[in-house]
Design a protein that fits this description.
The chain has 24 helices and 13 strands. With 495 residues, the protein is α+β, with helices and mostly antiparallel strands. A hairpin with a 5-residue loop joins β12 and β13. α8 packs parallel to α10, α8 packs antiparallel against α11 and α19 crosses α21.
Length: 495
């Protein structure tokens, strides 16, 4: 069992007065915090803004970011039933879905709060569910937090005291990631904290201490205790940060990826002696970097694109299974896009990604090599139509993925590939303007097919529709007489 006081004693220096004042100001800009603080204090209870709310407020100081987060985490010595009583008349609504763990949710003046009683939990180290026990002090409560940067609190009482027993402020300023106690104990209690460490590298630009990295490496196998849904949430949050590369490198180097995303770790293939292929792992991370750059440059994209980023990271995961050594030291990966699409479906389904996300990433993986058959523009209009039709609404993402997939250091080759893709996009634009490629449909609909052939609804109508669509892709739009003649000829030639 765990639950003993942290082995590392508090190391923080007193919080400087200037910082105390900054934090007080950050709290005071929120009327909700002032109101809740006064209400709890009048009833004789402590209440503190805690954890990520304090961290993010400090990070926002001096920037244009919101000075307090939208959702706020509070901790108090009041027990859950007392919290519910205190919130009557203050909160417009409350919910108790987390009350078994000491958490009461509330909305006050449009702001969502989670208010948790001081805790001193114990873990059985077989699941990540703690044996909930109420704590007796704020410092004890902070000792159970995942990282020092989340183990800071500021009182909502009139004194606005800042409590930072484990040096979280110093770690935040130094961009250092540490745990309040021994990292190995923290991660053994709750292995999900290791994935949170990965995320904080991307989200906050923190560098983990050596003991944190060592603990992650030694306990990576414990991630098997975590549900796929929770793993998926943390992985997605990491990928959606501005610069996830360093975090993903930590994810792989510590062995965490071996447990939950082994296909990514498998990309670290031994490079052949003649260096006839790139380091696929490094290449994939670079493709992700470049896809994020293109995403930012696209004025129509308003938020990070999880589908594009997953596709950029995973588009080559079929390469390890398809690698073949060819004559003269060459290496091939024939059909790795086909194998990769299957692996994507299997892994993302295992991580409980939504079906639409899984299918979109798999489709992009399958299509990412199609462009390389374009050569110097030898594709017929029919081939261009099929490229657009097969991509469907994924076409804008496919454009970004294909462009990002060029990681050659040969500037002449990179420029040539870019120019060739410019040419393809221009042809797509021209054909789209002439033929409305976004909605390629047969020149006759189902009703017309039934009327012309004199048949009822059924399988034959679907087959006729598919035949006419193939003609549409191959030859472009047909007028009514041509389409009807082709339909009758197809029908007459059927067995």
């Amino acid at each position: 069992m765990s639950g003993q006081p942290p082995s590392r004693p508090p190391v923080a220096e007193p919080v400087p007065p200037a910082v105390q004042e900054t934090v007080r100001e950050l709290v005071d800009v929120s009327p909700v915090l002032t109101r809740v603080g006064e209400h709890f204090t009048r009833a004789g209870f402590e209440v503190h803004l805690v954890g990520g709310s304090v961290r993010d407020a400090l990070l926002a100081a001096g920037s244009d970011a919101p000075r307090t987060p939208g959702d706020l985490d509070l901790t108090t010595d009041a027990h859950p039933e007392q919290v519910l009583d205190l919130l009557r008349g203050v909160a417009s609504s409350t919910w108790n879905t987390g009350i078994a763990f000491g958490t009461v949710g509330a909305e006050v003046s449009g702001v969502r709060l989670e208010i948790t009683t001081f805790r001193a939990d114990r873990y059985d180290r077989e699941s990540r569910n703690p044996e909930v026990a109420w704590g007796s002090s704020l410092v004890d409560d902070l000792s159970r937090r995942d990282f020092t940067v989340n183990a800071m609190a500021v009182s909502l009482g009139p004194d606005r005291t800042v409590t930072d027993p484990y040096g979280g402020l110093g770690d935040l300023l130094a961009r250092r990631l540490r745990t309040p106690g021994a990292a190995v104990d923290s991660f053994a209690d709750d292995p999900l904290r290791m994935l949170r460490a990965v995320r904080f590298v991307a989200q906050l630009g923190l560098t983990p201490d050596d003991d944190v990295v060592e603990a992650m490496t030694s306990l990576a196998g414990e991630l098997a205790r975590i549900t796929p849904e929770r793993v998926q949430v943390e992985l997605s949050k990491t990928l959606l940060q501005d610069s996830p590369r360093a975090a993903l490198e930590l994810f792989v180097s510590t062995g965490l990826a071996d447990v939950v995303l082994p296909e990514l770790a498998a990309l670290r293939m031994e490079i052949d002696e003649h260096h006839q292929h790139k380091d696929v792992y490094s290449h994939s991370l670079t493709v992700l970097d470049q896809a994020i750059e293109l995403e930012r440059a696209d004025g129509t994209v308003t938020e990070p694109d999880l589908v594009l980023r997953l596709a950029a990271l995973l588009h080559d995961i079929g390469k390890p299974a398809t690698r073949r050594h060819e004559p003269r030291g060459r290496v091939s990966f024939h059909h790795h896009e086909v194998v990769g699409a299957k692996l994507v479906r299997k892994r993302l389904a295992a991580l409980r990604y939504p079906k639409d996300v899984t299918e979109a990433v798999a489709r992009l993986t399958f299509l990412h090599l199609r462009f390389h058959g374009y050569g110097r523009g030898e594709w017929t209009d029919s081939a261009v139509r099929r490229y657009v039709t097969d991509a469907g609404d994924l076409l804008p993402r496919l454009h970004k993925l294909v462009r990002s997939d060029c990681t050659t250091r040969n500037k002449r080759r990179a420029a040539a590939l870019s120019a060739t893709y410019d040419s393809l996009e221009q042809r797509i634009a021209e054909l789209t303007a002439a033929e409305d490629l976004a909605r390629v449909r047969p020149d006759l609909d189902g009703n017309a097919i039934m009327e012309i052939l004199g048949i009822p609804p059924g399988r034959e109508v679907g087959e006729a529709w598919k035949h006419l669509k193939e003609l549409r892709l191959e030859r472009g739009p047909l007028d009514r007489d041509e389409a009807e003649a082709e339909l009758r000829a197809w029908w007459a030639a059927r067995p």
